[in-house]
Write a structure and sequence with these properties.
- This protein is an alpha+beta fold and 467 residues long.
- Strands 7, 8, 9, 10 and 11 form a 5-stranded antiparallel β-sheet that branches. A 4-stranded antiparallel β-sheet has the order 1-2-4-3. A two-stranded antiparallel ribbon has the order 5-12.
- Helix 6 crosses helix 14 and helix 10 packs across helix 14.
- The radius of gyration is 32 Å and the shape is extended.
């Protein structure tokens, strides 16, 4: 495949592509074999006619048009890799040369948005706010209580049940006076307030005592998984056999010794504080890297067109659609829950998309300015997790990526990460309160000087390579 790259205004490029005749013929034959499965031809079993006979019967042009529709995404991706283009948004594709006969090449061209270029300002030694995270006593208390709950025991009591108690019960469910399958259990331990059973069931057992019989009336949800029960009114006959009270261990050194490797409660609390502090410290470091890159963006000049920002915002939503679908949720249902249309959601995230693009542009420009390189060892190390998942060696995976031209994506990823670390390591930490005050003054000054309706993009999360 041969590609020719032409830069256009407004962060767009035009790529002219020539697909070799051999690749065109291969795609045409592949499509013809697929079409043969739907055809019956004399002398051949169903779907077994050779590709050449299908082309002869239907005509080369008709098969080629279908082949182009099938192969164009693959050719487009190959052209991107060959031309070294990272697209933003959907391309505008036009066929320029369509072969009339087998053995001829094909040509097309496309325009697409690309990452904008940044004119760098200062990016080393910038003063950046950093928050010193302290572990509040409330967090330690919450974690101690969580551990304590795990060592609670249940003791039988002779009183009426209250929220938080557990009941040992037998129950049987009835629809219109008839017992239904799966609606009965014996010696079932039910924690009141846990939401273990259908909504409304547990509430009707508060105040019950051992030996008491109760009738519990409920309505199954319309979307209940057992279709024969969905939306139905049911009555459960419940026999309360025992009321059990949760008893928590005393908060003392004996509890700490039973629940951990520490001898005292104070040692356990100190360990929790240290671990939480480490986690909060990691978050503070990540926040600092975000702020460092944002500071470099503020010093740089990056022009982002509305069209490019909208294209990136659309890509962000499409990624969200795939994530929602992967979790079994209909994206349209998600939009209904938000009370917004797809276009409204995309418009709302356009400012975040613009900031994301500026960050990418600045990080890429810093990597180029610093001549950041990635070694073979670093590439292999970065691929270890993926290689393990695919059950091959990192070296083999890297070789495969090189054959397809995708190794450049990994290299750019690592170069960008190095650039982010370079900026963060060179930044000068200052108290976050001081940094926030400076930011507020700068935004107020910019708002006074900016034309009506213009403002500063709101903060988003730090872009990281591979997102």
């Amino acid at each position: 495949m041969q590609t020719t790259l032409k830069e256009l205004p407004n962060s767009r490029v035009e790529v002219q592509v020539e697909v070799p005749a051999a690749d065109v013929d291969k795609a045409t034959s592949r499509t013809a074999r697929a079409m043969a499965k739907e055809m019956r031809m004399p002398g051949f079993r169903a779907g077994k006619a050779p590709a050449s006979l299908v082309i002869q019967r239907l005509g080369f042009g008709a098969v080629l048009q279908e082949a182009i529709r099938d192969a164009l995404p693959e050719w487009y991706e190959g052209a991107l890799l060959d031309a070294g283009v990272s697209p933003i948004g959907d391309p505008d594709i036009n066929m320029t040369t369509v072969p009339e006969n087998e053995g001829e090449p094909l040509a097309f061209k496309f325009e697409v948005g690309v990452r904008p270029e940044a004119q760098l300002g200062s990016y080393k030694g910038l003063e950046v706010g950093k928050e010193e995270k302290e572990v509040p006593d409330e967090i330690v208390d919450t974690e101690v209580e969580r551990i304590r709950e795990g060592f609670a025991r249940l003791e039988t009591v002779e009183r009426e049940a209250k929220e938080g108690d557990s009941l040992l019960i037998d129950f049987e469910g009835f629809l219109d006076g008839s017992a239904f399958q799966g609606g009965a259990a014996e010696d079932y331990l039910l924690a009141l307030g846990s939401g273990q059973l259908i909504e409304g069931f547990e509430e009707q057992l508060v105040g019950a005592a051992a030996g008491e019989d109760r009738e519990v009336k409920v309505t199954f949800p319309a979307d209940y998984q057992a279709e024969h029960l969905a939306g139905e009114d049911a009555v459960f006959k419940v026999k309360v056999k025992e009321v059990r009270e949760k008893v928590l261990p005393d908060l003392d050194d004996d509890f700490a010794a039973d629940a951990s490797e520490f001898d005292t409660l104070e040692e356990l609390r100190d360990d929790i504080r240290e671990k939480v502090g480490t986690a909060l410290g990691s978050r503070a470091e990540e926040d600092f890297r975000v702020a460092a890159i944002d500071a470099a963006v503020a010093e740089a000049t990056v022009e982002i067109t509305e069209e490019l920002a909208t294209a990136r915002a659309t890509e962000r939503w499409e990624r969200m659609e795939r994530q929602l679908a992967g979790r079994g949720m209909d994206p349209n249902q998600f939009l209904q829950m938000q009370g917004k249309t797809r276009d409204e959601l995309i418009a709302e995230t356009r400012e975040d998309a613009e900031k994301e693009l500026k960050r990418e542009a600045v990080v890429t420009a810093i990597a180029e300015a610093e001549g950041i390189e990635v070694s073979e060892e670093e590439m292999i190390e970065a691929l270890e997790h993926s290689a393990e998942h695919e059950r091959i060696s990192p070296e083999k995976l890297l070789e495969r990526l090189r054959e397809s031209g995708r190794d450049s994506l990994i290299r750019e990823d690592l170069q960008a990460r190095k650039a982010i670390e370079l900026v963060a390591e060179a930044a000068k930490p200052i108290p976050k309160d001081e940094a926030d005050a400076r930011q507020e003054k700068a935004e107020a000054r910019e708002k006074l000087l900016a034309p009506e309706g213009e403002g500063k993009a709101k903060a988003g999360e730090l872009w990281t390579p591979g997102d």
